[in-house]
Amino acid sequence: MRTRKSPTELVDATADVDALMAQLRHPLKIEIAAVRTIIRRANAQLGERVKWNAPAFFYKHDMAAFNLHARDVVHLVFLFPDGRVIADPHRLLEGEYEDRRMVYFTGLADVEAKAAALTDVVNAWVRLVGGELPPRSPPTAARRRSGSGGR
What we know:
CATH architecture: Alpha-Beta Complex
Strand content: 15-25%
Mean pLDDT: 84
Distance between the termini: 42 Å
Largest sheet: 5 strands, antiparallel
Number of helices: 5
Oligomer: single chain
Radius of gyration: 14 Å
Shape: globular
């Protein structure tokens, strides 16, 4: 039986995620990389690791992970410890599951259109679990295009 890692055992493994991304064969790899960049820039407190054979993010608890089985959309799963959820005025989060919500992106234009909302969701999630440091500023369109994963 697999055991869950406690929040204190979560260790940043960005190099492992970089290696996974380098080998990834997915029709929306560029879009996945763009979403990853937005999340990483959204808040300096986040760590990153491989979970479910996909890039995943955490701060004190697991926050979100990609579901790479979907081939026609970028599917991001946000996890909510203890079933507590955040307000989502942008209506980015989908589903009424007890401990998770889904976010979907249909292409690069959709990723760019939802970047500010995704940044807000990430920072609201960090506040939910007790984040104390200020969030990073949201990426500008020019920084997103020039960062990793640009075309």
